[in-house]
Amino acid sequence: IIVIIITYSTTHPTQTMTTTPPIWWIVGDGDLSYSAQCARSETTMHIHATVLETEAHHRRVYHNSDTNTQIIRDAGHTVLFGIDCRQPHPCERVDFLFPHVVGKNNLKRNRKLVRDFLCNASGAQHIYIAVTQEQSTTWQIAQSAALYGLFVTELETRYRPTHHLSSHRGRDRGFRVGDDACRYLLSRTAPSNGDLQLCCRHQLAMKVSATVVDRHLAELLQDNELVVNEDLEVMEYKAPTLVEASTLKNCSLNVYVLHVLMVGKKAPLSRPIADGVREHLEDGVRQKWGLQVAKGGRMVGQLVPYGAHKKEMESSAKADSASSS
After folding, report:
1. pLDDT for 98-131, tens place per residue?
2. CB-based burial of residue 163 (10 Å sphere; 0-12 exposed, 13-18 middle, 19+ buried)?
3. Are 208 and 256 in contact (CB under 8 A)?
4. DSSP letter at 75?
């Protein structure tokens, strides 16, 4: 009798599971100094350091091109040349420090550059944009971000970059960022600091007779059909004012003005959204109150951080107090 014993092993060769690290895109990095600085210590994300120039052109223009490129690659990261910052770049994080179109300063083109960049970067979890003192007030970073559903989650004021600032209008030349340079963190997470939320003021003016006064925004909004948007907060930021017909040209009725403030809450406030709220309120004045809107159909004003609005209101209150005393 021949007995054959067959044994089965329940063990398997050890399999090493590897995970791809999240991607960190750095765009428009001058001579690659910022990427080289980050690459020395970054171990949890894989850096893609990118510049617009071709490699040959970059080496001709920037004195530190070869050195910084080597530092980045030796640290296990990637350098990519000829990359337009407006291209889609799926990643966890993206940094754009001191964006600027090549050539002389052009406000319209630079704002468009920021919008086009954000359009394709809005899928990233964290977007950092650093701007100089002048750019922080004119390039409308927060307003552009809101168009793509992005909040200013954090704002680092008096930002002081520690890397070599090398690219000025496409040349290997340093530049000053100013005392009030700042760096924005943009994301889809609402800021814990409500002062960073965008807001917009609007004067809702209506023509009234002498007997039709004392209207308030709360009355206009209390009807469920006139709820504007759960993601926003709409309120009066100061008492209504009455402008008498005797002070107006070509108007036989008084004008009653509600001072409306719209503030982002669960969603960032953008100008198209604010203008939609304005239109909604004007329709409510006509339909619910049966009044004629004065100067209706005009677009809302500029969007500003709620903190800036509060400071302006405080200054105005102090000025009124001083003038009355």
Report:
1. 888 876 678 888 899 999 999 999 889 999 999 9
2. middle
3. yes
4. T
Give the type of residue at 286.
R
What is the model's pTM? 0.84
Supply 280's token pair: 């909604």
Closest alpha carbon to 196 in 150, 153, 139, 141: 153
Which DSSP helix (H) or strand (E) runs through 96?
strand 93-97
Tokens, residue 101: 């179109």
Q: Which amino acid is at 118?
A: L
Distances (CA, A) of 179 to 153, 155, 184, 290: 22, 15, 16, 53
DSSP-derived secondary structure for 121-165: HTTSSEEEEEE-HHHHHHS-HHHHHHTTT-EEEEEEES----S--
Q: Do 94 and 24 meet the contact criterion of CB atoms below 8 Å apart?
A: yes
The residue type at 171: R
**55-105 per-position pLDDT tens digit:** 999 999 999 999 999 999 999 999 999 999 888 878 999 999 888 887 667
Residues in Cβ contact with 286 at an 8 Å cutoff, skipping those fewer than 6 apart: 292, 293
